[in-house]
Amino acid sequence: MTHIFPTYQQFPMELVSGHDWYLVDQAGHDYLDFTSGIGVCSFGYSNDQIQTNVVAQLGKVWHTSNLYPSQLQDQVADLLAPQGMLAFFCNSGTEANEAAFKLARKYTGKAKILAFKNGFHGRTFGSMSLTGNPAIQTGFTPLVPGVEFAPYNETAALDQINDELAAVILEVIQGEGGVIPADVDWLQAVAKKCHDQGVLLIIDEVQTGIGRTGTKFAYQQFNVEPDIITCAKALGNGLPIGAMLGKKELAVAFGPGSHGTTFGGNKIALAAAKGVLQQLTPAFLKTVQAKSHTLLAALNKQVADLPIVTQITGLGFMIGIHLTPSVKVAHVIAHLQQQRLLTLSAEHNTLRLLPPLVMSESDLLAGVQLIQTELQQQAASVDSLVN
Ligand SMILES: *Cc1c(COP(=O)(O)O)cnc(C)c1O
């Protein structure tokens, strides 16, 4: 890739096509996909409904700008947003968080925002400034002022929530940070303190949303109520689309001219999102929950007790296998690739699994078997080094 900025350390093979929940490289090898393109292609690579919607829209019109109303945007917003919320469509997760950051400041008239250590919200200046990982911020200062950080899952964080804040932003499961779920009691206490202090609660569902954890949004399993939700990744099954959802009363701060986007809400991406959301029914989510229980049970039985595994975390189809420092997750990923299984990493030497939600139970279990074998071999070679 001599013409491309080297911002990514890339794997050796290009994936040139896909089917079901498999990807195919230039040499024609099939790979079982436990990544979904980083939590994006939740309906896999041969979904009729999404394909049909996109192809039909391709034959009509691709883009009209947001100067004209769009029935499709209204339909997708209706399918996506919880009762009493409105949508702003954009093209990515970071843009959804930028919109949330701007809306929170404008609506409250306050500047400060509290984010969490080890969190991830994106790479543009606003969302990078909200990202609690110094490695991602290095070299880019000065960052957006007014951002403070609190420790995730720690009671001390509650002391940092006061009426000087415009908003608190968090992930209910820190994804890039190592698949770390919030403690339910802690998250409820954070939400309550926000409510009591008049601070907006922004929940970043970019990775956890759109069924990834077995419910449409992950926060639904924590019994908290956000004022603003951001989503992206799986919303278009691979076409670029993000959305910021917010309570109706926030609309006074987002009138004409306040915020905008050329491409956001474009008709091709929206056609894909409509196909995704039409299929994200309660019945479908039940199948995801059932399969995720099977997946987690298999991991607990076959992988959790291996000597190089410290713990398994996550919810639904979002799982972190935490490895001891004696093995490098990058090596595990490379070996699994040779076994034709694609996996991801996350912070703190975590093997991250984000399989498409449509994957069959038998292929989920086949993936677990490959992971077990690989981690057993890694454990054995660590053992032989030690002895
Ligand atoms: C991926 C991610 C983002 C950034 O999304 P982009 O589409 O890459 O800008 C933001 N928040 C969370 C939680 C994410 O996982």
UniProtKB/TrEMBL annotation:
Gene3D superfamilies: Aspartate Aminotransferase, domain 1 (3.90.1150.10), Type I PLP-dependent aspartate aminotransferase-like (Major domain) (3.40.640.10)
Pfam families, per the entry: Aminotran_3
PROSITE patterns (UniProt xref): AA_TRANSFER_CLASS_3
EC number: 2.6.1.11
Protein species of origin: Lentilactobacillus raoultii
The protein's name in its UniProt record: Acetylornithine transaminase
Family statement: Belongs to the class-III pyridoxal-phosphate-dependent aminotransferase family.
Zinc-finger in keyword set: no
Cofactor(s) for this UniProt protein: pyridoxal 5'-phosphate
Pathway: Amino-acid biosynthesis
Entry's Gene Ontology molecular function annotations: N2-acetyl-L-ornithine:2-oxoglutarate 5-aminotransferase activity
Keywords of this entry: Amino-acid biosynthesis, Aminotransferase, Pyridoxal phosphate, Transferase
